[in-house]
TrEMBL record:
SUPFAM superfamilies according to UniProt: GAF domain-like, Winged helix' DNA-binding domain
UniProt protein name: IclR family KDG regulon transcriptional repressor
Boundaries of every HTH iclR-type domain copy: 6-65
Keywords of the record: DNA-binding, Transcription, Transcription regulation
Boundaries of every IclR-ED domain copy: 59-247
Transcription keyword on record: yes
InterPro entries tied to this protein: GAF-like_dom_sf, HTH_MetabolicPath_Reg, Tscrpt_reg_IclR_C, Tscrpt_reg_IclR_N, WH-like_DNA-bd_sf, WH_DNA-bd_sf
């Protein structure tokens, strides 16, 4: 090491760089990535947390979003969607691809996709669109809009057919949306892509549904008898996201 370098400071900066790259890591994962002992990593994380450079949620450490804003991540209405921690915890825990979509004008826009190994956003998928009437993300938000806003969107929406399972009849879609609102979640069971299933719940801000979080996988991965269990975990993540969003907007 260069005689002018400060070893402890350098190690602390390496931790910050690692968290910027990997997004959220446990103490053990940081130890393994940097080949450092537990005591040193713990003391540096403790110091960084006390100085508010790093925050901890459950067992995961991540950069404080108020201080570190990744210029490569898209900000929308002051929310850095790909920086929210709860979806990464959820995706890693369940080992299932996780989507975040928000309502922009009359479209559902994807703001984050977390695929295996569940550490970084799939940047190429951010800002893509998903159908309002067939995707779980779109349907669950559409179902939770006010009646007037929902009707206005339906009046201006073409019900394109993507598979044989797609709802293309307004007479069938409207009662389907009523069921979704009552149960609190939506399922896209091969309505957008054959062989694929998606489960989504709303994300709320100021008690208004502004988007949705969803699990996406094959019909073999997401079994019908596991849907309610997945919904419970998605709801918990959605609630955590609301807390994070409110913190970011303070």
């Amino acid at each position: 090491m260069n005689s002018y370098e400060v070893s402890t400071l350098k190690k602390g900066l390496l931790i910050l760089d690692l968290l910027r790259e990997k997004h959220a890591l446990t103490l053990t994962e940081i130890m393994e990535e940097l080949s450092m002992n537990k005591t040193s990593v713990f003391r540096m994380l403790y110091t960084l947390e006390k100085m508010n450079y790093v925050t901890k949620h459950n067992k995961y450490y991540h950069l404080n979003s108020h201080i570190f804003r990744n210029e490569h991540l898209y900000w929308h209405h002051d929310i850095q969607w790909a920086s929210l921690i709860a979806p990464y915890h959820l995706a890693r825990q369940e080992q299932i691809t996780t989507y975040i979509g928000i309502l922009e004008d009359c479209e559902m826009v994807i703001k984050n996709v977390i695929r295996e190994p569940f550490e970084q956003p799939a940047f190429h998928a951010i800002d893509s669109r998903t159908p309002m009437h067939s995707s779980a993300l779109g349907k669950v938000v559409l179902a939770h809009l006010s009646p007037d806003r929902q009707q206005a969107m339906l009046n201006n929406m073409e019900l394109h057919t993507y598979t044989t399972e797609t709802f293309y009849d307004y007479g069938l879609l409207i009662p389907h949306l009523q069921v979704i609102k009552a149960q609190g979640y939506a399922v896209d069971n091969e309505e957008t892509n054959l062989g694929k299933c998606c489960i989504a719940v709303p994300i709320y801000l100021n008690k208004e549904a502004i988007g949705a979080i969803a699990f996406h996988g094959t019909t073999e991965q997401i079994k019908k008898n596991a849907i309610r269990s997945y919904v419970k975990k998605l709801v918990e993540a959605s609630q955590q996201m609301t807390v994070e969003i409110n913190y970011l907007l303070d």
